[in-house]
Amino acid sequence: MIVNLNASPYHLGKRGDREDMVRQRVKGTKLPVFYVNQVGGQDELVFDGGSFVLDSDGCKVLSGEHFKEGIYFCNTNQVKGKRNEVNEELLSLTNYSTEEELYAALVLGVKDYVGKNGFKGVVIGLSGGIDSALTLAIAVDALGSNRVEGVTMPSRYSADMSAEDAESEARRVGILFRSISIEPSLMLLCRAWKESFLVMG
Fold this sequence. Notes:
The protein is of the alpha/beta class. Helices cover 42% and strands 19% of the residues. The chain folds into two domains: 2-94, Nitrilase/N-carbamoyl-D-aminoacid amidohydrolase (4-Layer Sandwich); 120-200, Rossmann fold, CATH 3.40.50.620. It has helices spanning 14-29, 76-79, 98-116, 130-143, 160-173, 183-200; strands at residues 2-6, 33-37, 39-42, 45-48, 52-54, 60-63, 122-125, 148-152, 176-179. Helix 4 links the parallel strand 7 (122-125) and strand 8. The model has no long low-confidence stretch (mean pLDDT 87).
């Protein structure tokens, strides 16, 4: 048998490419392959796991979960092409939709980036819009609500609805939420610009 210990970074659609590549090795060697992939985030990279075993005919007999560590067992009958020995439950672990797959990758990347760098938590600026809402959901799923804080920073140009939506988002996921007005800072900046333009004029 061939045991392939790998650290293959994630990108969308790579799962099928990996299996096709390993299946070619099986075809050329007539040997079963145990493909064992790293799991976790490392800086800008995400390693998605998804280990699997192909028997000597190139048929998949075991799949590990993606984006989660795990220990899986495969007996010698399975890799010799005896399909009646295959645990079908272990072949269904990879059934992510595209959206679920991307979301799981983002959650794992955030979780390990924050954890491995020793950060206590994160602060997220909440605008009430869909982009910050998605960012908030990822952070809470990765770290837990006790390690996420939301902040909205209104000024005269902020709609009341935006602040209300931001507070509602924070309340739904149970995080600490603060509203810090940037109006005084905005006024100072506007005054400085006005004075600068007057001097230049």
